[in-house]
Amino acid sequence: MAEGEIKLEESWKFALEGEFAEPYMADLKRFLVAEKQAGKRIFPKGSEYFRALDLTPLDEVKVVILGQDPYHGLGQAHGLCFSVQPGVRTPPSLVNIYKEMQADLGIAPAKHGFLESWAEQGVLLLNSVLTVEEGQAAAHQGKGWEKFTDAVIRTVNDECDGIVFILWGSYAQKKAAFVDQERHLVLKSAHPSPLSAHNGFLGSRPFSKTNEYLQSIGKDPIDWQLPENV
């Protein structure tokens, strides 16, 4: 992750330049190199660690959705929270997200779980931790990624206006607790996981609330309908 090794979209590269110079990022890089040298398989692939930032430049962010860790199964993660690569079975939390989207907006569930079209419209699909070891959920928590993604959220909070922060579950709500609710809209509910979706996620209408807010401040709404062919 040293300068020149990781290619990062220019607006984020400029905004986060100071983070890459911090000792914790050097420690994180050493950790990842050591894990790979030990023969461990890391997801997503290196070129997709910062995929969420690459697809959603800082000046184009309209919405932030926070996740926790990448999926740890083979072929799933590609750098966007809740999203999986084409051809991969839609994960249970995303099934519930689609269920709520249908109830909220009347959009039938997509037959895939690939969310890049949201990212390309300004939805920053950011995990708190950007890597994981195959088959080992949360294996890379506490290694430095959280500090980096805190800086990403703080940058959006400080440098943008009228952003919708969609915070599903207590982890996301704690992570983004500092967001200025005078300048941004913060939508909170239970997590879409099957374990908690019935405790307030289903029926929360985050998609229509997001678009109503964006339109009220003169921004284009998000087209939440996913393309069928990916």
Percent range for helical residues?
A: 25-40%
Strand order of the largest sheet: 3-2-5-6
- CATH class category: Alpha Beta
- Report the biggest beta sheet as strand number plus sense, adding barrel if it closes: 4 strands, parallel
Would you kindly provide a written description of the structure presented here, covering whatever features stand out?
The chain has 230 residues and is an alpha/beta fold. It has one domain (10-217): Uracil-DNA glycosylase-like domain (Uracil-DNA Glycosylase, subunit E, 3-Layer(aba) Sandwich). 35% of the residues lie in helices and 10% in strands. The protein is built from 9 helices and 6 strands. The strands form 2 sheets. The protein has a 4-stranded parallel beta sheet with strand order 3-2-5-6. Strand 5, helix 8 (170-175) and strand 6 (185-189) form a beta-alpha-beta unit. The longest helix has 15 residues, at 23-37. It is globular, with a radius of gyration of 17 Å. The model has no long low-confidence stretch (mean pLDDT 96). It catalyses: Hydrolyzes single-stranded DNA or mismatched double-stranded DNA and polynucleotides, releasing free uracil.
